[in-house]
Amino acid sequence: MENEKTVKQMEPDIAKLKNIKTEAGMVDDSFGVIITAPGSDCDFVSRYFAPSAGIPEDPATGRAHCVLIPYWSDRLGKAKMTARQLSNRGGQLWCENAGERVKIGGKAVMYSHGEIMKNFT
């Protein structure tokens, strides 16, 4: 998008987004829509919608930033950047294009704790 304000004010039709996957005959649940623009107080901003995967709007997503970091790195000509996701909850991310990989950091809150155990017989 042209600017941060446009991304922030976007009101997508979630039902139509959900139907795109079905109408296109996609079977993979990975379909999502990313909108992005240059940021006013960071390098870039974004929002991510994946209603066909049960996520109307992801508040702060690493998955989308795996695509956004190389995109903005090329456009801005820099490897280290800051980003903000403009969902209602929002999130700030520290990003780095490390060639074949991207690095993403930010603040997080633990919402679940669990243990996975293997039972070998």
What would you note in describing this structure?
It is a single chain. With 121 residues, this protein is of the alpha+beta class. The chain has a single domain, classed as Diaminopimelate Epimerase, Chain A, domain 1 (Roll), CATH 3.10.310.10. 26% of the residues lie in helices and 29% in strands. The protein has 3 helices and 6 strands, in the order ααβββαβββ. Strands 1, 2, 3, 4, 5 and 6 form a 6-stranded mixed beta sheet that branches. The radius of gyration is 16 Å and the shape is globular. The mean pLDDT is 91.
Straight-line N-to-C gap: 55 Å
Number of helices: 3
Q: What's the CATH H-level superfamily name?
A: Diaminopimelate Epimerase, Chain A, domain 1
CATH architecture label: Roll
Strand content: 25-35%
Which shape, going by the Cα principal axes?
Answer: globular
